[in-house]
Amino acid sequence: MSYSREELADNKDLAIILLLEDKSPMQKISKENYVRVSDDQIKAHKYGFGLLAGERSKYGDALAEIIDIDLKYSLDGTLWKDYKAEIQAAAPGLLKKLVIHKTINSGFHFLYRCQFIEGNKKLAKRRDDGPSKTKVLIETRGEGGYVVVPPSKGYEVMNNSMLDLPEISVQEREVLFSCAKIFNETDDSELRTELASDRRMYNRQATRHEDNNPFEEYNKRGDVLRLLTDHGWSVAKEKGTKKLLKRPGETSNNYGADLDIIDGIYMFHVYTSSTQFQVDKTYSPSQIFTMLECDDDWTIAARKLRKDGYIKTPGKRRDIADVEFIQRPDNEIEATLKEARITSSTDVPPMYELIGINDTLVLSRGNVVGLSGAVKAGKSAIINLLLSKSINAKCEGFPTINVKENRGGKPVVHIDTEQSKSKHKENIMKWILPRTGFKETPPFFHSYNFRSYTVQQSREMLVWLLAKLYKEHGGIHMVLIDGISEFVRSPNDEEGCFTLVKLLMELSSQYDTGIVVVIHTNPTYENTTKERGHLGSELQRKAESMLGIVNDVANPKISIMNARWLRNGDKVDFGEIHYSFDSELMRHEQVGIQGEADEFTRLKAISQKIRNNTSITEARQMIVRGANVTTTKAKSMINNMKDLGLIEIQNNYIFRIDLTPIADGDNDNPGVEEEKGSAPF
């Protein structure tokens, strides 16, 4: 299918130009010098025709724009199919609206009008060994650009007609752009530019320690994906090393940015214009941290990163292949490697479950489990329960939490680094022993108070104690350390935290026991479910499981334990354990998982704390802070509120539906902020 010359001449909404045999324009096409060719010239022209994009092909407020997909540079030949698939997944039906032309080189053009367009832009490139270093795969022709169109030789109409050029929304245009950028291989020059910018900002606004730039260290070691997800971004898809992200509040399948590794550093390239980031700009990890955590203040960012340990470790770095690095004789290293090797015939003992919760393996011998929560969240109740059940596995209460029976009375080790000795003893006598049936401390229960000792002393005593108990009793049933942060100088001491977690893993393996460690969540972090500092991050990577405890928003007297990470199970299957203090039994007891009525009450209480005309992103952040839940959970809660008729969502803003009068003090004015320092809920 094609267009006739008469049809082009009759259409006065399109800026048609005449092309020479080499496809170059016969006339000047700048905005100031452009003069529309006459109908007779169009009808008599024997070579090709072009369409000017931008204002000269304007209809109403919508301007013409073209996306050019050049398949001759697609190495695997799948670019066209893959690009269409991404568009269809992100916006079903959008492809059918577009005008599509096939080019003489078997490429394709998307033609449309939109109320917002830009100049010519390169959307996707790939690296090339030739002089240009890159080849353009997908680009646009906007204001000031043009493309060849039918009835030019070799050009065909594949879908719809440009004589009635359709208008698409700004959001649909963004879908076309973001899907194209999935196929971009970011130019290394962007990396060099942004890293050079980091150094300039550091030298200009922070301190002058050229050899210890915290921005450079954060670029190398910072967990930028965790930072982005904590601020509402979510990973929608992975394509090789590239992670495709949705912007905060995005409910469609449209991607807003990508995160890709270039020369060992994650670089963040933004497609969308709906965030605080600049569209079509690439950001380094330090730039992301400065914008999201420090309100774009580089001086504050430098101070925070230094405090968090992003400085170079002093001393000469050794190459692993350096002979001086190897300290042991060859025969010892060879013997150790032989012991460490795993083959199909290696005799490995089966996994031995120590703690199971809701029929899910949480802790096995030779492993470490982390238990985290804020102050007063209810950690002590679970700590005391685990100790009671490690002493007597058949003790009453919490039927879905099971600790393996301690046959043979192997040592149970408890170390408290935070409580005073008087409070420590009170916990044993009032909360731990009564549930077990023991009136006095059994000989195999070894409870120690390490509060007054240094980090070095605490580590020495722990290692010495476990070695002694293992030698004397032939094994250790379980170890629980309440306050693992006291075994390191700072939770942000990266080297110290790595060494400590490595030590815990070695001890659990060496003595074939399970170790439970308790760590606080970060009180200064927006998402209060994040474990403190590098220590929390290291535990997340190495622990067999990470369990978290929060207070129920609807009823703060109830604590909720859930799984934040399970190596041997599914968080959905694990569910939640709700518990509270039973005044009749004088101890904490499980109250089960919330039913539908309780969940409605909880969501209703939360929805009534959200101000009218609040953006979805802001509401989600309020729920994360106030309800002590993850970003994903907060998003799910908002969707459930909508399904239950508690809120309405219009244009990504929330409007509350009042089923009952709101409590005094609730603020319906979106322009009035909550009192500084007050909790959202």
Automatic annotation (TrEMBL):
InterPro entries in the record: DNA_primase/pol_bifunc_N (IPR015330), P-loop_NTPase (IPR027417)
Domain DNA primase/polymerase bifunctional N-terminal, residue spans: 45-160
SUPFAM superfamilies in alphabetical order: P-loop containing nucleoside triphosphate hydrolases, Prim-pol domain
Xref: Pfam families: Prim-Pol
Official protein name in the record: DNA primase/polymerase bifunctional N-terminal domain-containing protein
